[in-house]
């Protein structure tokens, strides 16, 4: 068996030691005689798995005590509705649109509250980061939404905006699905953050929500009870059956990150991987990445070949070398390499070696 280098945007590669441990524990978890999939979510065994996962992610991201951590379902797109149902109070919410994901969030929230786009990079096709000083935030907002890493366009906030410094006292809501655990989070700037698991946490089906205590308890009457943050928080994410196996794998990923050196080490590796790839693109005279340097994502790197006719040969050659899922998102075209926490530097090295070879042959 040889594992390929998998550059999928999500569901994405998981650390091999996590998959090996899950395989070894599949039939009999720690002498319980059961697979984790077969356990009661309220039993002693699963409770210990859940509590450790929560404590580990709280430690890894230094989540303050006044934030609740919820393990929910519904994914990032579910949160596009669940967040406004819980936090908008039917009032005004402003969106910073930096790519497809924040655009979707804006559109969905319009069903539940009064929305406005405070800033957008649409004019340059989502290749820059609108400067916070220029955001046109309204007064009396219930919250402000940003997507801190745009998975499709490869645009990332290098620091979260400080809304207070902009004269706005509304909480910031952050969709950090595609770069969570690759860098620290400044919680003093955040009211709520959410992340679908399938990029940097674990299998699809788990959504992590971090929500400040004082924002709980204001859900709209139409909000399903199972998606009311207060109900979920009051029941330790067990109001209904949580995605138990996904939580278990997420917990193994958290343990793996701790063993490897924590979020600081994940960040160091993300910088190393992304620099290697951007350097290859920028010095090639062949490949192009159109994102402004200061806005470039460390996790998702879209790039283009000089002629679309080369796309298929490039992908075929990549597949031969076991470099998988490099095709760009259909809305952007070209290629995209997603290089999340589980991607070893050897995978990026193999990719840039191939890219240089391909450019030499076709340049
Ligand atoms: C992948 C992704 C989502 C996806 O949400 P799902 O509902 O789980 O498909 C949302 N936001 C961002 C930024 C993402 O990268």
How would you characterize this protein structure?
- There is one protein chain.
- This protein is α/β, with parallel strands linked by helices and 363 residues long.
- It has 2 domains: 17-259, Type I PLP-dependent aspartate aminotransferase-like (Major domain) (Aspartate Aminotransferase, domain 2, 3-Layer(aba) Sandwich); 262-362, Aspartate Aminotransferase, domain 1 (Alpha-Beta Complex), CATH 3.90.1150.10.
- The chain has helices at 16-24, 44-60, 75-87, 100-109, 229-234, 244-260, 262-284, 311-320, 345-362, and strands at 5-6, 67-72, 92-97, 114-120, 141-147, 149-150, 155-156, 172-175, 192-196, 207-212, 300-303, 323-324, 335-338.
- It has a 7-stranded mixed beta sheet with strand order 2-10-9-8-5-3-4. It has a two-stranded parallel sheet with strand order 1-12. Strands 6-7 form a two-stranded antiparallel sheet.
- The longest helix has 23 residues, at 262-284.
- The protein is globular and about 60 Å long.
- The model has no long low-confidence stretch (mean pLDDT 98).
- Bound molecules: pyridoxal-5'-phosphate (PLP).
- Pyridoxal-5'-phosphate binds at residues 10, 75-78, 101, 147, 151, 175, 177-178, 196, 199.
């Amino acid at each position: 068996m040889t594992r390929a280098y998998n550059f999928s945007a999500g569901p994405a590669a998981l650390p091999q030691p996590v998959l090996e441990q899950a395989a070894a524990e599949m039939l009999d978890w720690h002498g319980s005689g059961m697979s984790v999939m077969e356990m009661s979510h309220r039993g002693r065994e699963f409770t210990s798995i859940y509590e450790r996962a929560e404590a580990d992610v709280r430690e890894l991201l230094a989540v303050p005590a006044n934030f609740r951590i919820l393990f929910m379902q519904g994914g990032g797109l579910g949160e596009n509705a669940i967040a406004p149902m819980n936090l908008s109070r039917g009032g005004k919410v402003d969106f910073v649109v930096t790519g497809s994901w924040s655009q979707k969030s804006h559109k969905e929230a319009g069903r539940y509250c009064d929305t406005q786009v405070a800033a957008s990079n649409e004019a340059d096709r989502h290749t820059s980061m609108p400067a916070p000083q220029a955001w046109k935030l309204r007064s009396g907002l219930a919250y402000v939404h940003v997507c801190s890493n745009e998975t499709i366009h490869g645009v990332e906030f290098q620091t979260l905006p400080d809304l207070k410094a902009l004269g706005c006292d509304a909480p910031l809501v952050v969709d950090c699905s595609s770069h969570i655990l690759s860098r620290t989070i400044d919680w003093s700037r955040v009211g709520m953050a959410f992340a679908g698991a399938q990029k940097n946490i674990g299998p699809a089906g788990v959504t992590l929500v971090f929500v400040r205590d004082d924002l709980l308890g204001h859900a709209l009457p139409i909000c399903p009870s199972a998606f009311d943050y207060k109900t979920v928080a009051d029941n330790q994410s067990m109001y209904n059956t949580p995605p138990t196996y996904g939580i278990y794998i997420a917990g193994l990923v958290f343990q793996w990150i701790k063993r490897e050196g924590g979020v600081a080490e994940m960040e160091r590796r993300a910088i190393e991987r992304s620099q290697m790839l951007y350097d290859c693109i920028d010095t090639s005279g062949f490949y192009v990445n159109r994102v402004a340097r200061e806005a470039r994502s460390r996790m998702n790197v879209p790039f283009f070949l000089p002629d679309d006719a080369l796309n298929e040969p490039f992908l075929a050659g990549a597949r031969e070398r076991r470099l998988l899922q490099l095709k760009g998102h259909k809305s952007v075209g070209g290629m995209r390499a997603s290089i999340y926490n589980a991607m070893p530097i050897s995978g990026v090295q193999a990719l840039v070696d191939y890219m240089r070879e391909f450019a030499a042959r076709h340049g």
